[in-house]
Amino acid sequence: MSHAFSSLAEFRALLAAAPDRDAAAHAAAVARNGQLTKPPGALGRLEELAVWFAGWQGTDRPRCERPQVLVFAGNHGVVAQGVSAFPAEVTVQMVANFRHGGAAINQLSKAFGATMSVHALELERPTADFTVAPAMEEAEVVAALRCGWEAVDAGADVLVTGEMGIGNTTPAAAIAAALFGGEPAGWVGRGTGVDDAGLARKADAVARGLALHAARLGDPLQVLRCLGGRELAAMAGAIARARVERVPVVLDGFICTASAAVLEKAAAGSLDHCVAGHVSAEGGHGRLLAALGKAPLLDLGLRLGEGSGAALALGVVKGALACHSGMATFAEAGVSGA
Ligand SMILES: Cc1cc2ncn([C@H]3O[C@H](COP(=O)(O)O)[C@@H](O)[C@H]3O)c2cc1C
Ligand SMILES: O=C(O)c1cccnc1
């Protein structure tokens, strides 16, 4: 089988060449929105959301009938630094739980009519501990990007990417710090619920990772390789594929957003097809969204990952698109204008 890319350089080139949204469909949706039976702007952010979807889906009647949820799982060498409240074996145990339908993301996917698939990435072979070596070799990060790239259904009308990987709020914080600067302490959070000492260990691990790999961190894809993880790279690969296919993406929490941020830094505009589904309770997520200029749709205090916050936001998306694509215009309904 031939692959879309076989190196980080080829991946970067595909990303940089991605097409823009359909400007005519966007303009048609803006015009349609102005004729629907409601006072101008009365549906607030739903209106903006609907015309944004129209541009990416290339139609003035956007829909959310075939949402796809992808959950990627990976394990992390950096858990050896005592950065999670849970043991690493929970990753593979949760993958089994996803396969049996028992996790939060199974229920949320079902509730919002999304297909959901789980992709476990070499769980028996954790990444290297980034405080002592690059997390991945180039071939490993490319394979993980490709796993995500190939998992996307180009016929989906919206994509959600989620993750499971004990310890992965630490690589996410390291990526955020490497891409946007600032003290590690400002990017780490409690994840699964570490205490103050655990939080200090996370900040210290991030600081040591940044120092060790400093010479390479000017390149965002090297940030992903040196500090990231397989499930983070897979999410980045899936989000990149969606950009190329013009499938809109709803971003999940801190880990998903950190993975996505790598793409934006690698090629500006790479996240133009992404909306922030929610802001999680993880300390750095709000900062990261602000740095990317993304306003979250929901703020419910979630701190789960798995794609859960983004899947919930599909409800808002469905509402926005049902109104935009199904409502009558003033002319059709015989309603008088202002
Ligand atoms: C049972 C369980 C289910 C989860 N589902 C998502 N996560 C979340 O917690 C992990 C990140 O937090 P940290 O960096 O503190 O380990 C990731 O697996 C994330 O998806 C879970 C964590 C647990 C324990
Ligand atoms: O924001 C997230 O995605 C998150 C936060 C805590 C734990 N797991 C995921």
Task: Report what the structure shows.
- The chain has helices spanning 8-16, 23-33, 45-57, 89-99, 104-111, 138-151, 169-180, 196-212, 220-227, 230-245, 254-266, 283-292, 308-326, 330-333, and strands at 67-73, 115-120, 158-164, 249-251, 274-276.
- The chain has 338 residues and is an alpha/beta fold.
- The chain has one domain: Rossmann fold.
- α9 packs antiparallel against α11 (254-266) and α10 packs across α11 (254-266).
- It is globular and about 70 Å long.
- Alpha-ribazole-5'-phosphate binds at residues 84-86, 90, 94, 163-170, 191-192, 304-306.
- One of its GO terms (molecular function) is nicotinate-nucleotide-dimethylbenzimidazole phosphoribosyltransferase activity.
- Its EC number is 2.4.2.21.
- Keywords: Cobalamin biosynthesis, Glycosyltransferase, Transferase.
- Belongs to the CobT family.
